[in-house]
């Protein structure tokens, strides 16, 4: 039997593949990589493309939109992104989040300090606890 | 019969409320199951990336990543607060805010200011009155994607890179079980190394392309995955809390209806008795 290694392909939103393989091909940013068992530890960034898993039964291929590849001698892990990532796209997302925050702060209707907010909160929590107590008392 | 018309309308209105709360309870129950599934689905990624980070902490990288080394002096801290968008879920959000404020207050006593990155409208409307909010996103719905939170996380990571903050926390509710959700303040940065046993020999990864590039991308994804996990977990918590509070609302409505029906029946009885006695009195008078 040929030597095999364990392959996991996961994205933040779910597991995509898990099993054993004889060889794995992955699209690294520096060019395609072919990984056989007992490969030296490696960390690589992946570009969007196809990860091909060669098993004794045949080949499986999974599309990834970029991500990370970790290789340990007998384990290969692909951490797939859920969408294509680029520096400027990330930057735009950050700016949007910032802008939204500024807008929200602009129409700040009242100026409250931390202590006041805390007092209000304590009141709300106390009310909730009282309700809980009343509910429990009502049941018995 | 004109007796107790007000009471009957009141009973009807409470019954209508009960219908709504019961429907909300059932909707929350089914949404909770789905949210729990998503929570489990996101776990493999988090586990794997934690493993990689664990390996990395024990490897001897040629490049020491700033996220792994803690700053000596803490001048400012950052919080990423994850709340729900909607209310009617009991004490879920107030408890979360209290945990956040308690933590911020501890820092404040040491003269450390805090800045916030907000996810969810409830947290926004609470924190915007007094806190320094650097980023916010709301209305993510029940099926958020990692891409939705990239901006919020990046703002905080940039602040850390520039030395504007020296610690970063994420605050969200932890799903203990359907009845219990507890607020949790988790430190994101600097990354707390896991205590795995050290590998004996010296080794390091091969990096492709440069160590710095790879590690930057990896760390960013790690932090994002932690925040994303917090987000999906918080959604499961929200639905569970809503289910429980709507259930008790339906129960309360039931007991209100019982009480009102009792009052109504008594009034009806009294009216009948009165009528009979009037007739009898009338007959006796003839």
What is the subunit arrangement here? Answer: heterodimer
Strand order of the largest sheet of chain A: 2-1-7-6-5-3-4
Instruction: Outline the biggest β-sheet of chain B.
Output: 5 strands, mixed
Order of helices and strands of chain A: EEEEEEEHH
Radius of gyration of chain B: 28 Å
Number of beta strands of chain B: 6
**Strand-residue fraction of chain A?**
35-45%
The major pleated sheet of chain A works out as: 7 strands, mixed
Provide a compact summary of the structure.
The complex is a heterodimer of chains A (140) and B (286). With 140 residues, chain A is α+β, with helices and mostly antiparallel strands.
Task: Summarize the structure in words.
The complex is a heterodimer of chains A (140) and B (286). Chain A folds into 2 domains: 82 residues, F0F1 ATP synthase delta/epsilon subunit, N-terminal (ATP Synthase, domain 1), CATH 2.60.15; 49 residues, Single alpha-helices involved in coiled-coils or other helix-helix interfaces. In chain A, 33% of the residues lie in helices and 42% in strands. Chain A has 2 helices and 7 strands; from the N terminus they run E-E-E-E-E-E-E-H-H. Chain B has 6 helices and 6 strands, in the order ααβαβαβαβββα. In chain B, strand 1, helix 3 and strand 2 form a beta-alpha-beta unit. Chain B is elongated, with a radius of gyration of 28 Å.
């Amino acid at each position: 039997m040929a030597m095999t290694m364990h392959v996991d392909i996961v994205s933040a939103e779910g597991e995509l593949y898990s099993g054993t393989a004889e060889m794995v091909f992955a699209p690294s940013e520096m060019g395609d990589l072919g990984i056989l068992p007992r490969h030296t530890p490696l960390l690589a960034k992946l570009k969007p493309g196809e990860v091909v898993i060669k098993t004794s039964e045949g080949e499986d291929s999974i599309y990834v939109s970029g991500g990370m590849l970790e290789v340990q001698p007998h384990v290969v892990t692909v951490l797939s992104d859920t969408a294509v990532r680029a520096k400027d796209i990330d930057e735009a997302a950050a700016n949007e989040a910032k802008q939204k925050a500024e807008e929200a702060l602009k129409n700040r209707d009242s100026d409250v300090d931390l202590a006041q907010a805390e007092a209000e909160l304590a009141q709300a929590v106390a009310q909730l606890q009282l309700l809980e107590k009343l509910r429990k008392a009502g049941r018995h | 019969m004109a007796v107790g018309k007000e009471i009957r309308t009141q009973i009807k209105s409470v019954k209508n409320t009960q219908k709504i709360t019961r429907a909300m309870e059932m909707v929350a129950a089914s949404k909770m199951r789905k949210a729990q599934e998503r929570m489990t689905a996101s776990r493999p990624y988090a586990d794997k990336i934690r493993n990689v980070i664990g390996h990395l902490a024990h490897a001897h990288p040629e490049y020491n990543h700033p996220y792994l080394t803690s700053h000596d002096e803490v001048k400012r801290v950052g919080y990423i607060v994850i709340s729900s968008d909607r209310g009617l879920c009991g004490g879920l959000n107030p408890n979360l805010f209290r945990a956040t404020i308690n933590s911020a207050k501890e820092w404040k006593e040491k003269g450390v200011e805090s800045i916030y990155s907000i996810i969810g409208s409830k947290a926004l409307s609470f924190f915007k009155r007094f806190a320094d909010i650097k980023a916010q996103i709301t209305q993510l719905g029940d099926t958020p994607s990692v891409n939705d939170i990239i901006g919020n996380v990046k703002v905080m990571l940039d602040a850390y890179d520039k030395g504007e903050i020296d610690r970063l926390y994420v605050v969200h509710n932890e799903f203990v079980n359907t009845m219990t959700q507890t607020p949790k303040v988790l430190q994101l940065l600097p990354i707390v190394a896991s205590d795995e046993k050290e590998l004996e020999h010296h080794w390091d990864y091969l990096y492709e392309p440069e160590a710095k590039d790879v590690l930057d991308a990896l760390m960013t994804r790690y932090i994002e995955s932690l925040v994303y996990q917090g987000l999906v977990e918080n959604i499961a918590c929200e639905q569970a809390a809503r289910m429980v509070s709507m259930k008790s609302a339906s129960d309360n409505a039931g007991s209100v209806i019982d009480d009102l029906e009792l009052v109504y029946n008594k009034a009806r009885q009294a009216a009948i008795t009165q009528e009979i006695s009037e007739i009898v009195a009338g007959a006796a008078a003839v």
